[in-house]
Design goal:
By secondary structure, the protein is α/β, with parallel strands linked by helices. It has two domains: 5-253, 3-Layer(aba) Sandwich (Peroxisomal Thiolase, Chain A, domain 1); 264-414, Peroxisomal Thiolase, Chain A, domain 1 (3-Layer(aba) Sandwich), CATH 3.40.47.10. The protein has 14 helices and 15 strands. One of its GO terms (molecular function) is 3-oxoacyl-[acyl-carrier-protein] synthase activity.
C-alpha cells in the first residue's frame, strides 16, 4: 500500500496578498491583483505592447527577511523564502526536533534570478567593467538558488531539488515531493514554487511572442479573463507559494493539523510544440487520467478542478475540450475555477499558488470566483465556472498545470479523512 501524504502548512506571496489569510480573503472577494506597470527603469512602457501585470506591490524584503537575504538574494528567491517560512510556521514543525536529513526541499521555478541577471548584464555592457560584476552573480541567478537558500535558512538537509518545466514547474515539484515521501526518502518536504520575472527583457520576450494581453492596458483588472470570449492572452504575474508535505504517519506522531491529502500525480510530454498545445486535447486528458489512476480515483469522484486556464485563446479551449473528453457528461457538474484570473500567470509559481487555492477549497468548502468571466466562450463554457464565490463540500480535486516545452502535470488532492 502506498504511504499517504498530507499537507500541513501553507505560505504565499502573491499580487493579492502576502500571507495565506490575506490571499484567501482577497481570492474569495474576487479581487484582482493586476495593475499597470509604471515602467522599467530606464525603459518607459511606450515600446511594450502589453503594459499590465500581476505585481507584488509593497514587498519590502527587510520587513520579512534577515539582512543577508534582503541584500544578496534575487527577488524570486526572497519570495520563495518568505512563503516557505510562513508554511513551516503554519505547519507547526520544529526543525530542532526533526532529523534534518529527513526533511527535503523541492522547488519549482521557471526563470530563476532574472532581476539580478538583467541588472548585472546591463551594467556590464554599459560600463565594460567585468571586475565589477556582483561576486554572488553566479550562485544567485542559478535556478536552484531558491532551494539552496530555503534549505540553509531552515536547516533542511534532505533531498534538495529544483524542477524547471516552465509554467508547470511547481505542480511537478508537488508531484515529485509526493513520490519522495511515498518512497521513504523523506518524512517532510518543503515544496515551493517561485518566479519574479516581470523584468524589461523577459516581459519584452513575451510581448514579442505575442502571448500577452494587449486589449486591456487601460483596464488592467480586466485583462486576465480565462474562458471568456474577450480573452486575448495571458497576464504575467509574480510570487511564490509554499506547501509542507509530510507522510501521514509523521503528521500523526506530532498531532499536526492536516489541510488535505495529496493523493496522485502524473507527468507527461505531448512531444508536439514548444509553445502551443495539441488542439485535440487528448494529451491533456491523458495526463489527468493518469493522475486519477495514481490516486486510485475515478472521474465520478472529482468535485472540483483548479484549471491551468491562462487566458490564452488556444490554451483555455484545449483544456476545456480535454475536460469534456475525460469527464464526458460529468464535466457539466464539476466546479471549476481559475486562480490566474486574479493573480495573472506566475509562471513557475503557478502550480503551487493554484495548489494552495485547491487545498483551501478542500479545507474550507469555499471556491473562489473566476474573475472577468463575463461572456463565456462557447468553446470553453462549462456550468461549473462562475464569476461568483461558491460553497461546496469538495472531496476530490484536480490541479492542472501545463508548460512550454510540451509538458503536462496533474495533481490529485483530497479532503482529509482520518
Amino acid at each position: 500500500m502506498k504511504s499517504r501524504v498530507v499537507v500541513t502548512g501553507l505560505g504565499i506571496v502573491s499580487p493579492i496578498g502576502i500571507g495565506v489569510s490575506e490571499f484567501w480573503k482577497s481570492a474569495l472577494d474576487g479581487r484582482s491583483g493586476i495593475s499597470a506597470i509604471s515602467g522599467f527603469d530606464p525603459f518607459p512602457m511606450d515600446g511594450y505592447r502589453s503594459k499590465v501585470a500581476g505585481q507584488v506591490r509593497e514587498f519590502d524584503p527587510e520587513r520579512y527577511l534577515e539582512p543577508q537575504y534582503a541584500d544578496r538574494v534575487d527577488r524570486y528567491a526572497q519570495f520563495a523564502l518568505v512563503a516557505a517560512k510562513e508554511a513551516l510556521t503554519d505547519s507547526g514543525i520544529a526543525m530542532s526536533k526533526e532529523n534534518p536529513h529527513r526533511v527535503g526541499v523541492i522547488v519549482g521555478a521557471g526563470m530563476g534570478g532574472m532581476v539580478m541577471g538583467e541588472r548585472e548584464i546591463t551594467q556590464l555592457y554599459q560600463h565594460q567593467r567585468p571586475h565589477r560584476v556582483h561576486p554572488n552573480f553566479i550562485p544567485v541567478i542559478t535556478l536552484n538558488s531558491a532551494s539552496g537558500i530555503v534549505a540553509m535558512a531552515t536547516g533542511a538537509k534532505g533531498p534538495n531539488v529544483t524542477i524547471s518545466t516552465a509554467c508547470s514547474s511547481s505542480a511537478h515539484a508537488l508531484g515529485q515531493a509526493l513520490h519522495c515521501i511515498r518512497e521513504g526518502r523523506a518524512d517532510v518536504a518543503i515544496v515551493v514554487g517561485a518566479d519574479a520575472s516581470i523584468t524589461p527583457l523577459v516581459f519584452a520576450g513575451f510581448c514579442s511572442l505575442r502571448a500577452l494581453s494587449t486589449k486591456y492596458n487601460d483596464q488592467p483588472e480586466k485583462a486576465s479573463r480565462p474562458f471568456d470570449s474577450g480573452r486575448d492572452g495571458f497576464v504575467m504575474g509574480e510570487g511564490a507559494g509554499a506547501l509542507i508535505l509530510e507522510s501521514l504517519s509523521h503528521a500523526r506522531r506530532r498531532k499536526a493539523r492536516v489541510y488535505a491529502e495529496v493523493a496522485g500525480y502524473a507527468a507527461t510530454s505531448e512531444a508536439y510544440h514548444m509553445v502551443i498545445p495539441r488542439e485535440d486535447g487528448e494529451e491533456v486528458a491523458a495526463t489527468m487520467r493518469l493522475a486519477l489512476a495514481d490516486a486510485g480515483t475515478t472521474v465520478a469522484q472529482v468535485d472540483y478542478i483548479n484549471a491551468h486556464a491562462t487566458s490564452t485563446s488556444i490554451g483555455d479551449a484545449v483544456e476545456s475540450k480535454a475536460l469534456r473528453q475525460l469527464f464526458k457528461s460529468r464535466a457539466e457538474n464539476i466546479t471549476i475555477s481559475a486562480t490566474k484570473s486574479l493573480v495573472g500567470h506566475t509562471l513557475g509559481a503557478a502550480g503551487a499558488i493554484g495548489g494552495i487555492a485547491t487545498v483551501l477549497t478542500l479545507h474550507t468548502g469555499q471556491i473562489h470566483p473566476t474573475a472577468n468571466y463575463d461572456d463565456p466562450d462557447p468553446a470553453c463554457a462549462l456550468p461549473g465556472i462562475s464569476r461568483n464565490p461558491q460553497e461546496r463540500k469538495v472531496k476530490t480535486a484536480l490541479l492542472n498545470a501545463f508548460g512550454f516545452g510540451s509538458n503536462n502535470a496533474a495533481v490529485v488532492l483530497k479532503r482529509y479523512a482520518a
